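User: I'm new to structure prediction. If I give you an amino acid sequence, what do you actually give back? Let's try with this one:
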Amino acid sequence: MRDLLQRLQRWAEHRLPALTRYRRPESLPIELHRRRIYIVPTGFGLGFSMLLLVMLVGALNYANNAGLLLTCLLGAASAASMLVAFRSLDGLRLGHIRAGHAVAGQPLELTFTFDSRRPRNAIRVDLGDSTVAFALDGHASTLVKLALPTERRGWQPLPRLRVWSTWPLGLFRAWSWLHPEQPVLVWPRGEAAGPPPQARADDARHLRLHRGDELAALRDYRAGDPQRHIAWKASARHENLLVKDFEQPQSHPQWQLDWRQLGGLDHEARIARLARWLNEAQAQRRHYSLWLPGHEIPGGSGPLHYARCMNALAQLP
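Assistant: Good question. You get back a string of structure tokens that encode the predicted 3D arrangement of the chain. For your 317 residues, that looks like this:
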């Protein structure tokens, strides 16, 4: 039975390429056209067709011209709705995809940018179990946000998206598939608990300077120093300009997050521990550096530095 199904699939791919051509990933932008849009009657549309058939038989049997005219008008309206449903997708364009940040096991927010040269209504996008409806005014692009389930860290390919519409009467369902060739990066999940990271010695040689609010000392003027920091009275008693220095030693030493310090753990356990340390450093607003095999990130802090470290950790083989 399996061999028969495989032969039928190969025959369909050879004889009906339009049904299988877009299962492979495509580069952006992706524009829908008539050769990749499918349309079938909905359940409501089939019931409405049976009702029209009954009305037609009754009008012909009783020679009721008004009933026959009404049946023809309703049939013409249903046929026109099929064309409108097709045109609601024809020419629709997916321009960009922007991915957010998420750790493995959490949903990753994706932002899709759709645009069109004419207005469109009641278009829906399916990604797994998530469905979002949107409309286009024909002038500006529309941002559609969907959640992608994640299971493991690293690069994850995007699944196929189904774009469909039953506009305007719900009699016909037009749909198409989008398979963008753009993987997304999923951050590793940190371990639940463990030992704290090692920090540098808390002395004057290793403490990082930061910009304080109180005067720390006077120093010689350097190019680029703001004029409001020049100590004019003190400079009048010296040959060189003196500048008020507000840099002070920071109270917290820098964290050194080093892959080589975790020799007793396996590969994924090391990644989970480093991810937990990065989360703690970000929560405590620490200054930290990260050493990975083949990649060393110098000390820093803030959301951008945290994202850079997590990206490097997620891309480890």
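You can read the tokens as a compact description of the fold. Here is one thing that stands out. The longest helix spans residues 65-87.
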